[in-house]
Amino acid sequence: MPALATLEELSQIYKKLNEFKKKHPQASEDLTLLLKSHRKIGYKNICKMYIGEATPENLKE
Length: 61
Prior knowledge:
By secondary structure, the protein is mainly α. It has helices at 7-23, 25-37, 43-50, 56-59.
């Protein structure tokens, strides 16, 4: 399924992600391992919890 974002938007976030990786290599590696080991939960759910928009409880409601 293709992304809903434009190619320009995708390119911008890709650049920012690479900048983050360079600035915070250990945090980036830790987050990568966390995401890979919990794929079945879903990236969207993980992101919602990370940025404080959701808790495990309200994701199950």
